[in-house]
Amino acid sequence: MISRADLQRIQSFPDNAMLLMAVVAVNPALPDNEGTALQTRAKVRMQEAGVPPTVMNQVLTDLHGAQMSSGKSALYIIGEDVFERHDIQADLPERFHYGRPLKSMLTGLLDLLPSAAVLAVDREWARLFLLQQGELNEITREENVRIDNGKSWDAMAQGTRHVPGTPGAGGSAQGSGPRSDSSADLFQNREDAEQQRFYNGMAKELGDILRLGHIRDLILVGPGERLAAFRAELPDKAPFEVIGETNVTGGTGWVNPAEILEKIQPILEAHRQQAEEGVLREIQEHGVMELERVLEMVQEGRIYQLVIPEDGAQFHLYRSHNREVPYFTGKKDVPESPLDGSLMEYVTLEEVLPDLTDLYGLEVKRLHGDQANRLVQEFGGLAGLPRY
């Protein structure tokens, strides 16, 4: 996992540092990684990226260890006196970059790893998990202490009640008769009230935890009846959104987190697709399309959100060489900046994203899969949402 301290350190590398930043799919279960295939593929990709032999050999030497670790993908950061490998519990698309630090690459990487909370609920247990960077960790477990009235509960459970004055076994002055429905109802009402208090307390605690963790998405796991009862205790203006429900075999109280992780993957993917389809609809209704028009409005401060494909390294534009007087264009026939006459350089969108976000206060929204393909094919590969 990449910690917050790791992110801050990587983002603080000087702009003139020469670094290899690479995401390598090291999962040994992948057919593409059988035998020497991983080594061969990584070597070819690094050669294509212009990685020096000394840096390349550091990666190739380490790949076996990366496969033996717990991660499915490995993020390498390698430069002068720097060697870092961060193991990530998710299958990620491979990326290889050598040159100035490509700081937006980390943002794009984390976009592929959604954060969410998962609450597994049944009548007796509530277990809260946090999903971060592909890892699902249990952070709290609460038990609902059910009412136990001793003999009176035993009697009701057996479907009988004590009847005063009726001879019982051994000539006792008290015997048993049919269960009192009113007593059973009273007990059930008391137990329902206890469950309501339990769920209500969990809902409040959940809101506090997710607010502190800046997590908006919640998935509920458990029997439908229990989830409905828990939902009834959620406030109208909860600081989170329930994005889906599922259930697991064997009860939520003791289920393995790996089974929960497998069950929630389709929910996360469906939620991502739904959100990104919403972005495309908003672009159609209110957005700005075509590279040059988007860049013009960005530099006028009229765009608040830039919508791009998941890999901005596949998209190119031109940036003025003088970073003190920035100018961006998609036109090939503009050799010099109209602002100060400095030469224009051919760069990837990924390279200029930090400049665009810092200079113009942009939010960047990446689209993935089919939605990214639609952005390229229908909207020219880049779009913006105007501030007004």
State the gist of this model.
With 388 residues, this protein is an alpha+beta fold. Helices cover 39% and strands 26% of the residues.
Task: Give an account of the 3D structure.
The chain has helices at 4-11, 37-48, 53-68, 104-111, 151-157, 181-212, 224-231, 257-286, 291-299, 349-360, 369-379; strands at residues 19-25, 73-79, 82-88, 95-99, 116-121, 125-132, 135-143, 160-164, 174-178, 217-221, 241-246, 288-289, 303-309, 316-320, 328-329, 344-348, 363-367, 383-386. The two termini are 39 Å apart. By secondary structure, the chain is of the alpha+beta class. Strands 7-6-5-10-11 form a five-stranded mixed sheet, sandwiched between helices. Strands 3-2-1-4 form a four-stranded antiparallel sheet, with helices on one face. It folds into three domains: 4-111, Translation, Eukaryotic Peptide Chain Release Factor Subunit 1, Chain A; 116-274, eRF1 domain 2 (Nucleotidyltransferase, domain 5, 2-Layer Sandwich), CATH 3.30.420; 287-386, Ribosomal protein L30/S12 (60s Ribosomal Protein L30, Chain: A, 2-Layer Sandwich). The protein has eleven helices and 18 strands. Mean pLDDT is 86; it is low at 147-163. Helix 2 runs antiparallel to helix 3 (53-68). Strand 6 and strand 7 form a beta hairpin.
